Amino acid sequence: MGRRKRAVETAVHGAFLLLGLITVGCVLLITVYLILSGIPAIRQIGLFDFLLGKTWASAAAEPSYGILPFILTSICGTAGAILFGVPVGFLTAVYLAKLAPPKLKIVVEAAVSLLAGIPSVVYGLVGMLVLVPGIRKLFRVPDGASLLASIIVLAIMILPSIIKVSVTALEAVPKEYEDASLALGATPMETYFRVSVPAAKSGIAAAVVLGVGRAIGEAMAVMMVSGNVANMPSLFQSVRFLTTAVTSEMSYSSPGSLQRQALFSIALVLYLFILLINTALNFFLKRDKEG
Amino acid sequence: MISTKRKACIWTMRLLTACSVVLTCGLALFLIGYVLASGLPHVTWTFLSSSPSILSDRIGILPDILNTVYIILATLLIVLPLGAGAAVYLTEYASSQRLVSVIEYAAETLSGIPSIIYGLAGMLLFAGTFGTSLLAGALTLVIMNLPTILRTTQESLKTVPQSYREGALGLGAGKWRTIRTVVLPGCMDGILTGCILSTGRILGESAALLFTAGAAHKLFGFFDGLMNQGATLTVALYFYAKESGEFDIAFAIAAILMLLTLAINFAAALAGWRFKKRRAL
Fold first, then answer.
1. How far is it, in rounded angstroms, from Cα B173 to Cα B181?
2. Interface test with A, best of B14, B20, B110 (most A CBs within 10 A)
3. Are B174 and B84 in contact (CB under 8 A)?
4. CB A180 within 8 A of CB A190
5. Is B115 on the interface with A (CB under 8 A)?
6. How far apart are CA B190 and CA B69, in angstroms?
7. Contact A246, B207 (CB under 8 A)
8. A128 and A19 in one domain?
9. Which residue of B has its CA nearest to A263?
10. CA-CA distance, B38 to A126, in Å (whole number)?
11. How crowded is residue B195: how many other Cβ atoms within 10 Å of its Cβ?
12. Average pLDDT for consecutive 10-residue bins of chain B (281 residues)?
């Protein structure tokens, strides 16, 4: 090989290595920037007052920055979305992976892809005009923009992720397991729920964790239906999530102010939650591959 | 033979499963029907082809449509070489398994980060340098879509038969020449699928653009547009619905977004189907 050709090869190799490392660079950059901009406010407010403070009044004469209501709302909202979304998503996944006739499967899969593709602002808009008035009339509350509305919107939004990951896990279950169960006299339905589902449990757990990540990170749709007042979470009251706390005040907080810095600290807390969820997700996905 | 209790159990499960499927499909149908029915009557030619003007009391979304197109083009132009290049490195060059898993882990992390975090990071990283502009928005979306392009290209690269590479190398081509002339053309369908998926994601994105690309509705050409603030369709929808309460306009935009989503889903399904067919050969 000529020296020139070898030089070109080395240069190209180096260039591709650089492109490969960009992904890692992006993660590091985002992490470093979020930490750097999130720490100052936490230091000024105090970690305990910030995380466990019960009142958020950033615009008051004596501002107080406690984000416990946001943290609890995010946890409750996510838990509620999981409570509604997982059973429906899981059963739909079993149907798609095991029971559906091929033609119907295509139709249901198209519906699921559509749900996945709808922009979150469209979910928010429909929630705002259908769900919010509906809750107000049904439960006779003064304002339908509430935790309940957010939970329902989030439950619908996480459905496609749960369904897709669960279907992949269920379809990967070896056919021998099912054959053995059928041969022992179990009906197909019993086989799917007693054999296939336990065999795919890591993948289904991964689906649930993915749903948690999606729900806790959703901002725009929730912004439009949650009412956006910094209350402690309560089903029929207007609430504010970690994500919406950042979104709603970012545009009018002045750069460099403690308020804006506190918003970045909220983002940092959210980011830490997400990293935790990602770690759990990777754990389950890895176990699913090995199992 | 089968006890009543077992039968009851089986039928309950069957019923619950059917209910879930009906609910999922019903939701999709309801959403599309409701949005199209409330939005399409307000879509007119003037609405699509003009910019908003307070003087003549006219609302048009042409600038928002153009902004969306610009941001999709700019993002894809930047993310394609980056994502595909990273995928080529991972499948063709990387020899250290540890480095591969670090890069893959980073990509997984990126795909799990919610868009509002991207919005803030983009605001810190890009809006500081380029100002709040479509370019800052596009660069934010580049990071966001990197894992998508990386994954689809990588999957496609893995299906290029090893014998193709050996053939090219055996004929005396260098590694780079092999990749350029044999491997990359063989994975075009994967890159195309990645493009379609990314386009869909950019089309629906709003939280990441709110603080990076701004919310103006002015008409610009491609390059001027990139340097200026501009709202995409989703951001415009958000402001019309949440800030000014003009629901007719919001629904008209939602209907357009819905049709585009359907088109993209169809294109993705078509690309996936062709991909599968080619692999089966």
1. 9
2. B20
3. no
4. no
5. yes
6. 22
7. no
8. no
9. B120
10. 10
11. 22
12. 86 93 95 94 86 77 92 95 94 89 92 92 88 92 95 90 90 89 87 92 92 85 84 92 88 94 92 75 57
Neighbours of A110 (CB within 10 A): 16
Cα torsion angle, B204, A164, A22, B82, sign: negative
Residues A197 and A282 in one domain: yes
Handedness of CA A181, A186, A192, A194 (dihedral sign): negative
Query: Measured between CB atoms, does B112 come within 8 Å of chain A?
Result: yes
Indicate whether A232 belongs to any domain: yes
A86 touches chain B (CB under 8 A): no
Q: What is the pLDDT of residues A255-273, one digit of tens each?
A: 888 888 999 999 999 999 9
- Report pLDDT for B273: 83
In terms of domains, do A274 and A238 share one? yes
Q: Is the residue at A117 inside a domain?
A: yes
Whether residue B186 contacts residue B148, with contact meaning beta carbons closer than 8 Å, is answered with: no
Query: Are residues A83 and A44 both part of a single domain?
Result: no
Interface test with A, best of B116, B180, B276 (most A CBs within 10 A): B116
A138 lies in the same domain as A230: yes
CA distance A114 to A118: 6
The CATH code of the domain that includes A159 is 1.10.3720.10
Q: Is B159 left (phi over 0), alpha (psi -120 to 50) or beta?
A: alpha
User: What is the CB neighbour count within 10 angstroms for residue A5?
Assistant: 12
And the tokens for B191? 């890159």
Is the pLDDT at A152 greater than 70, yes or no?
yes
- CA atoms of B21 and B148, how far apart (whole Å): 28
Task: Taking residues A38-62, report their average pLDDT.
Answer: 88
- Output the six-digit token pair for B5: 């209790």
H or E segment and range at residue A57: strand A56-57
Enclosing domain of residue A224? 68-290
In chain A, what residues touch B110 (CB-CB under 8 Å)? 23, 26-27
* A130 residue type, one letter: V
Domains in chain A: how many in total? 2
List, for residues A103-128, the tens digit of each pLDDT value.
999 999 999 999 999 999 999 999 99
Within this chain, do residues A134 and A241 fall inside the same structural domain, yes or no? yes
Asked if the C-beta of A217 comes within 8 angstroms of chain B's C-beta atoms, the answer is yes
